[in-house]
TrEMBL record:
InterPro entries reported for this sequence: EvaA-like, EvaA-like_sf
The protein's name: NDP-hexose 2,3-dehydratase family protein
A Pfam family per the record: Hexose_dehydrat
Position of the signal peptide: none
Start and end residues of each dTDP-4-dehydro-6-deoxy-alpha-D-glucopyranose 2,3-dehydratase domain: 34-239, 254-451
Superkingdom of the source species: Bacteria
Length: 457
């Protein structure tokens, strides 16, 4: 039996190849200037319709008699259930929301969010898909090459095969560049994870309708436009390797991991899945499940027609937030090294109590009725900022959320002494954490993609 062959633990050239792609704004196949017309043409080439309907008209969906949970007749896809959350001994005081009930999406299966990359003219290009999601306000946005739940790619819906799936699973897949399980929105999903992948193709790749090759530099330019790059693409775009521009930080990596461990240890969060029926504080009508105070979000139903999807028509529930979100990183350079102010966020659906989130992550209208001391820290700083380095409105996950948008901001700030639950991290430290699952939440990963788009390293 031949002896195993050792190989390098790291590809020293990989970060340089991605950096070259990020510096290249002229693609080999589609110019950034022509992208808008290309996307519009893909919209004209397919039929897309989304119509709100009462729950009784949702094909295949019903409320379970015993629990009131909203379920699909196949037993697949996802369920809408109730959740009871209690933060017993919050380290910074119980606060106004130490105990609450809410609907939550339970979707145990792990999906694949994968971007295929390939060299053209010596530069890595990313294969992106013009994908319709029923919750997107403008319906059509750029998604990863593959964006599919297990139910999708195992054809539980009895639809067409997922295009390019073979490059990410099975013996024919390409060279893996990144592969990590990451969380989704912890406020609306219960312990939901997706496999974030970047795979390099080693041979010819056919270019199918609704797909285009773009350099990372072109994608970074498109990230400055509202509602073009979808959430699933943004989380994968936080994963590419890059060269650490500085070996110094306010905290060593060991101190950082210790701080995260301490934050996870000091929060006693108790999560109980409960029936959706008679959920305290929520009321169910014919067309919506909503909070009695009119805040937070609603659960609604839609009928969907999408000509280029694996299944061209279906019904489903969606979560619809009440108001535009604000998601921001405050940044500051310490001795020339950029740092971002992160928060240790407790969200009901997280697998491990806390993940690192943005400095600010909220829908301001949900807190407008509270005293200033009970509103999220740094919210006024974000809303009144004038040193804005990045700003765009991006949709959240359009497959489960309706018209869920956030104003994403990168703000240059003065030096701030972090309050409890906050810390200054370098962007390289954030990038190192993203290589491991359940450290950095999905909103912070979007902001990491935005930081890369403005060249802040």
């Amino acid at each position: 039996m031949p002896s195993p062959i050792l190989q390098p633990r790291h590809d020293a050239e990989l970060a340089d190849r991605f950096a070259l792609s990020a510096a290249t704004t002229r693609g080999a196949h589609l110019s950034t200037g022509d992208f808008g017309e290309w996307l519009a043409e893909r919209g004209r080439a397919n039929e897309f319709h989304v119509k709100r309907v009462p729950f009784a008209d949702l094909d295949g969906w019903s409320f379970e008699e015993a629990t009131g949970n909203l379920v699909h007749r196949s037993g697949r896809f996802f369920t809408v259930e109730g959740l009871h959350v209690t933060e017993m001994d919050g380290p910074y005081g119980d606060g106004p929301y130490a105990d609450w009930h809410q609907p939550i999406i339970k979707q145990a299966e792990v999906g694949i969010l994968g971007i295929l990359v390939k060299e053209f003219d010596g530069v890595l290009h990313f294969l992106m898909q013009a994908k319709m999601e029923p919750g997107n306000r403008n319906l059509l946005q750029l998604s990863p090459t593959v964006q599919a739940t297990r139910s999708n790619y195992t054809k539980a819906h009895r639809g067409a095969a997922v295009k390019y799936l073979e490059y990410f699973v099975g013996p024919e897949r390409g060279r893996v560049v990144a592969d990590v399980l990451q969380s989704e929105h912890g406020s609306w999903f219960f312990r939901k994870s997706n496999r974030n992948m970047i795979v390099e193709a080693t041979g010819d790749v056919p270019l199918l309708d609704d797909f285009c090759w773009l350099t990372l530099g072109q994608i970074n330019e498109l990230l400055h436009r509202d509602n073009v790059i979808n959430m699933d693409a943004r989380t994968v775009l936080s994963c590419p390797p890059h060269t650490d521009s500085s070996a110094n930080a306010l905290m060593s990596d060991t101190q950082l991991l210790s701080w995260i461990t301490e934050e996870r240890s000091r929060h006693d969060v108790r999560i109980e899945r409960v029936p959706l029926k008679h959920l305290p504080g929520w009321k169910t009508g014919e067309s919506a499940i909503e909070h009695e105070a009119g805040r937070y979000f609603k659960v609604v139903g839609v009928d969907v027609v999408a000509g280029n999807r694996e299944v061209t028509g279906w019904s489903q529930p969606l979560f619809e937030p009440v108001g535009l979100g604000v998601t921001a990183f405050l940044t500051h350079e310490f001795d020339g090294v950029p740092h971002a102010l992160v928060s240790a966020r407790v969200e009901a659906g997280f697998l491990d109590t806390i993940e690192l989130g943005p400095t600010v992550q909220c829908v301001p209208g949900n807190y407008a009725h509270l005293d200033k001391r009970d509103q999220p820290p740094f919210l006024d700083t974000a809303l009144q900022a004038d040193r804005i380095r990045y700003e765009a409105v991006h949709s959240e996950e359009g497959g489960r959320f309706l018209n869920a948008e956030s104003r994403y901001l990168v703000i240059e700030a003065d030096e701030i002494d972090p309050p409890p639950g906050y810390a200054w991290l370098t962007l390289a430290q954030l990038a190192s954490l993203v290589r491991h699952g359940h450290y950095v939440n999905v909103q912070a990963r979007t902001l990491m993609a935005c930081l890369n788009a403005i060249g802040l390293r």
